[in-house]
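User: I'm putting together notes for a lab meeting next week and I want to include a structural view of one of the chains we've been expressing. I don't have a solved structure, so I'd like a prediction I can at least talk through. The sequence is below, exactly as it appears in our construct file.
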Amino acid sequence: MRLVAGSVIIALGLAAGAAWAHENRQPPPPPRPGGDPDRRPPREGQGGGYSLEQALSDRAQLHTIAFSGLAFLTGEPGASSFIPPGKVADFFGFQYLRDIDAAGKGHNPMFLDRIAGNVMRLLSSPQRRIFEQAAREEAAQLEAIARFRLPLVAAFHQDLAGRLPAGCKGLDRLAVRTYVADLFELDAHLAWHRARAFGAVAQSFSDAQWRTLGAWKFGDFRTWPEVDREALRDLRPRAATKLESVAYMTLASEFFSWVAGSAEADTYFCPERHGTYFGGFYFKDLPAMGQKDFDISTSLTGDAGEAFLAALTPAQRARMEALPDQQRELLRGIVTLRRAIAGKLRTFLRGAGPTDRELRALGRRYGELDGELAYLYASTFTAIGRSADAPQLARLRSLRGQPSREAGTAFLYSDRIPMPQWPDASFLLGGRR
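Assistant: Thanks for the context. Below is the predicted structure for the 433-residue chain, given as structure tokens.
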């Protein structure tokens, strides 16, 4: 029954992508200075040769999932709630821009500061007002998405610890899948809202603005004029909340990656994009928070994931090594849906775009697939955690190195919030919602 349900979801995702391709057989728009929206992105030879094929490879997937397993088994729910804002509504090529940067600065805080600052300088006052209004509206959406994740995180950790509410039997696959579909519907709405603002600004660009933007090379941080962090504060609008400021910076930076990039860059995702409820981002990214110049390690995920696998018993390792094959069709469906979503959003560059309802429907199907992955990962990690003895758990904690001390807290992206009482997650654990 589970395999049949999963196959139906995947088939729906593939059909959605095929339908989009059929409906949109039209010539691409004339190239504009600043990027042809339908060209293929740079490939091997820039920033270590990152590509969608590499992200989907069994090795990249296994080590990334193992890294999440290490983070989950050695961390608290608070650590698992941490997620960078850039992993939300990520259909605008910025992740690819980061990963292929020829200067190797894609995972340094100055990377976003520099391109966002340059875009802010480039915009006219009316164009800035479009982003300012969009940022105010997106702040509430960003917070809703972050808070919506918390019951999932709570459910996974309660199931791991065996502390189930009365009447609950354990993690419910269908409930997880449905809940993540709801989450990704919110994500798709945010992407639609953002693309609409991007399209309005792009439509109003002058030829001089396109020429300026065209001098900033996609994939090479060194071609972007330097922006001082103090000057950046003056360029940003006065924001009522931190999330409004985050939203404005996201809009400014992703506008460049979108108009200078391509649909294939928008489709790309890093291996850790899915099943983001286990603390891997806290483990990897937290040290960079608040730093002006800090290169986040691009090898930590693979190295720590490999070390985690080496610390497992043969039976435990076999569970982990089965995951790439078990998720293969799910990832195939995800790629098809991402390509469909990215393609629909790009039509805003032509002055018209999909309806919010269309994007939400695709987002729900995307979320069903991500929910299947999350359930698969959580079930595997929990089985390994329950079979580990005290010496093995101590060894895993030593592999982590940096301790996770987030008891009683959660995160709204990188901001800690008190969480002495986590949301009720019984509906994800076999109870009623």
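A couple of points you could mention at the meeting. Residues 1-47 have pLDDT under 50 and may be disordered. The chain has one domain: 2-25+45-428.

User: Perfect, that's what I needed.
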